[in-house]
Amino acid sequence: MTAAVLGAAGCDAVGGDAAAPSTGRGRPSPSPTPVWDTSPSSVAAVGDSITTGFDACAVLSDCPEVSWATGGSDEVDSLAVRLLGRAGAAERSWNHAVTGARMADLPGQMARAVRHSPQLVAVMAGANDACRDTVSAMTPVADFRADFQEAMNTLREALPKAQVYVASVPNLKRLWSQGRTSALGKQVWKLGICPSMLGDADALDAAATLRRETVHRRVEEYNEVLREVCAADPRCRHDGGAVHEYRFGTEQLSRWDWFHPSVDGQARLAEIAHRTVTAKRP
After folding, report:
1. How many CB atoms within 10 Å of residue 262?
2. Structure pTM?
3. 13 φ, ψ (degrees, to nearest 5)
4. Beta strands 120-124 and 236-238: pairing type?
5. Tens-binned pLDDT, residue by residue, of the chain (282 aa)
6. Are 229 and 156 in contact (CB under 8 A)?
7. CB distance 109 to 187 below 8 Å
8. Whole-Å CA distances, 191 to 3, 194, 195, 198, 266
9. How far is CA 267 from the centre of its chain?
């Protein structure tokens, strides 16, 4: 568990939202039904430790109550609560995220999620593929793409009309730069949280700088994969990089590990997700 880390504009290809052209004779053809429904009636979540609320409530522990995707906490006002109301979220939202999960685990999580026949699946995964013991152990981009595509295929085979919200991978380098100001946080990092980025947190020599930059570039490559695969699906919306670009400050980071989102950070991620899902696209 201690190796788990953060997984927080779109690519919905909404050609179906545009009015059909006139036939040139008689009345124009009616506009087709929009592909994207901004008010889905059920939500399933898949992903990693950020979606389980890891380290948000207690040290080295999951806290799904404050999950940005499906939690019931008043302080977070999760995506499910914003879409379904508190009672609806309790009855019609499901969290299949697992702390420590990588993209290779997503197809299995998706297979469990589709059993509920959700109208929306929220995805946040990829940080653990970059957060490895060494830079060389990071998931190759081609494998990352294949695993994400397999997860999408698993969904589509079972639920061809389900919608998908895909969050970008957070900026791990920025989280390092914020968290390294905390002596307690750096001690927790030594337990095994994201060694590829957080190892030797105070080292600023050329080797350490290159290591962190290599991880940062790999995260950017993962985000491009998420965007491209999502863009190919008319019922998928990507956050446009909003989670990656969000400038997490100390208030948005866990007071135990200064890396995972705090309750406030979870609320900010819920805002981004809700804004993306409910956006009216031209």
Report:
1. 24
2. 0.86
3. 40, 60
4. unpaired
5. 344 433 333 333 333 333 444 444 455 555 555 689 999 999 999 999 999 999 999 988 999 999 999 999 999 999 999 999 999 999 999 999 999 999 999 999 999 999 999 999 999 999 999 999 999 999 999 999 999 999 999 999 999 999 999 999 999 999 999 888 888 888 888 888 899 999 998 999 999 999 999 999 999 999 999 999 999 999 999 999 999 999 998 899 999 888 999 999 999 999 999 999 999 974
6. no
7. no
8. 8, 9, 9, 11, 23
9. 13
Report residue 199: phi and psi, to 5°: -60, 145
- End-to-end distance of the chain based on CA atoms, in angstroms? 43
Per residue in 47-61, is it b (16+ CB within 10 Å) or e — as a string? bbbbbbbbbbbeeee
User: Do residues 267 and 68 lie in contact, with contact meaning Cβ atoms separated by under 8 Å?
Assistant: yes
Q: Rounded to the nearest 5°, which phi and psi values hold at 197?
A: -100, -40
Yes or no: say if 138 and 219 are a contact pair by the CB < 8 Å rule.
no
**What DSSP string runs through 202-264?**
T--SHHHHHHHHHHHHHHHHHHHHHHHHHHTSTTEEE-TTHHHH----GGGB-TTTSSSB-HH
The DSSP symbol for 270 reads H
Rounded (10°) CA dihedral 238, 240, 241, 243: -60
What is the distance, to the nearest Å, from the Cα of residue 16 to the centroid of all Cα atoms in its chain?
Answer: 25
Residue 87 CA to residue 75 CA, distance in Å, equals 16
In contact, 129 and 139? CB cutoff 8 Å: yes
